[in-house]
């Protein structure tokens, strides 16, 4: 089997060494930067067609181990897959009928993993979304503070306004908006672990009178036109294509006439939402984000428009997210021993591959991320948003 495997890889100029446990070694170049330690010799047969999904699965299940810089590992895996298989056609996107129970279970699986684990590699405010780098050299903490402020400025928050934060996470944006813009924030999440820590940090910051966070599905928001502004960050990836219209209809229903809605989320490269990346999306769906679906920008805009929200501004932040993920991945790699005390070996393997793989994918335009700002016009079509963006950058 090893002879056939060696013949398959012959001619691939990759900085890769393959070591079979208790067996032979194969170097594809004189100076390999990445080593695959094959624990299960039967894996050699599977590696005749090595998609990123198969390679990731083999690592997560301990059929192989890896040595080398994690970013080099991801690049070599991608080049190995393309070298043997070429560019794979993307399978059709699966559209799931998301219900409350499915979404709650998916959110709990991902976000309730361990607050302490997330704290190892996130910024001090624990902002789990794309940072905003005014300069490429900005630190992660600086970029996340700049992102929070960028969102608040785009929303033109004013003292005394009511802001709905859909998918509030650990409450970083809610606290920033309350502290620096003097607004009243109502945040909702489906993660019990996030909510517990978010409420504790809100109390420690002395912001309980202006920030209220609760465990609530967006479909269960009561009443109408309760909020002056709405923000949703890293949330609509969990909504599902079939539910997009309902989701944006609820945001339209909850915001007052003339109010602004900001949707910040990952978007698909292809218009039909199909995945790219040699099976990377399949790995993420199985191990990281169950039932996650990425709409294309055009799908999001169309849905917002059909629900009565007028899109005013769109900003793509793909390279910002690549840089953010590189920071996260580096932070985790530097604290692997601590992380191993907080989560299982399987979970740690998943997250090492996920963070580095997503950094690689965003860098290479496998997916995108957009901030979409919209307004709910008054009945006569008017609104009071400034005519230019000048106020955002003053």
Automatic annotation (TrEMBL):
NCBIfam families: cyclopro_CfaB. GO terms for biological process: lipid biosynthetic process; methylation. The active site is at residue 358. It holds the Pfam family CMAS. This is C17 cyclopropane fatty acid synthase CfaB. GO terms for molecular function: methyltransferase activity. Gene3D superfamilies: Vaccinia Virus protein VP39. The keyword S-adenosyl-L-methionine applies. Keywords: Lipid metabolism, Methyltransferase, S-adenosyl-L-methionine, Transferase. SUPFAM superfamilies: S-adenosyl-L-methionine-dependent methyltransferases. It comes from the Bacteria. InterPro entries: CFA/CMAS (IPR050723), CfaB-like (IPR048027), CMAS (IPR003333), SAM-dependent_MTases_sf (IPR029063). Belongs to the CFA/CMAS family. It comes from Halopseudomonas formosensis.
């Amino acid at each position: 089997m090893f002879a056939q495997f060696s013949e398959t890889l012959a001619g691939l100029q990759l900085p890769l060494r393959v070591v079979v446990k208790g067996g032979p070694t194969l170097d594809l170049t004189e100076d390999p930067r990445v080593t695959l330690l094959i624990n299960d010799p039967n894996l050699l047969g599977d590696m005749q067609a090595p998609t990123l999904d198969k390679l990731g699965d083999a690592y997560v299940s301990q059929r192989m181990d890896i040595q080398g810089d994690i970013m080099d590992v991801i690049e070599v895996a991608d080049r190995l897959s393309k070298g043997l298989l070429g560019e794979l056609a993307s399978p059709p996107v699966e559209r799931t009928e998301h219900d409350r129970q499915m979404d709650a279970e998916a959110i709990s699986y991902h976000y309730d993993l361990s607050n302490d684990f997330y704290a190892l590699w996130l910024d001090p405010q624990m902002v789990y979304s794309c940072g905003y780098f005014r300069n490429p050299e900005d630190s992660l903490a600086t970029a996340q503070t700049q992102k929070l402020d960028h969102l608040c400025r785009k929303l033109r928050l004013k003292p005394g306004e009511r802001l709905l934060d859909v998918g509030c996470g650990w409450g970083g944006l809610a606290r920033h908006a309350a502290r620096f813009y003097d607004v009243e924030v109502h945040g909702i999440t489906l993660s019990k672990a996030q909510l517990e820590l978010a409420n504790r940090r809100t109390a420690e910051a002395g912001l309980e009178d202006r920030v209220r966070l609760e465990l609530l599905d967006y479909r269960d928001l009561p009443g109408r036109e309760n909020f002056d502004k709405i923000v949703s960050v890293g949330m609509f990836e969990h909504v599902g294509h079939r539910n997009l219209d309902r989701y944006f209809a609820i945001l339209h229903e909850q915001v007052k006439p003339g109010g602004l809605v900001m949707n910040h989320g990952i978007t698909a490269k292809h218009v039909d939402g199909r995945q790219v990346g040699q099976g990377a999306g399949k790995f993420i769906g199985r191990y990281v984000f169950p039932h996650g679906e990425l709409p294309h920008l055009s799908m999001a805009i169309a849905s917002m428009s059909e629900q009565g929200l007028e899109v005013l501004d769109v900003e793509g932040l793909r390279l910002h997210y690549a840089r953010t993920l590189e920071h996260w991945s580096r932070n985790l790699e530097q604290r692997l021993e601590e992380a191993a005390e907080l989560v299982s070996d399987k979970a740690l393997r998943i997250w090492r591959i996920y963070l580095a793989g997503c950094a690689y994918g965003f860098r290479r335009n496998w997916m995108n991320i957009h901030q979409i700002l919209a307004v709910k016009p008054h009945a006569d079509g008017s609104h009071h948003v400034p005519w230019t963006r000048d106020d955002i950058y003053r």
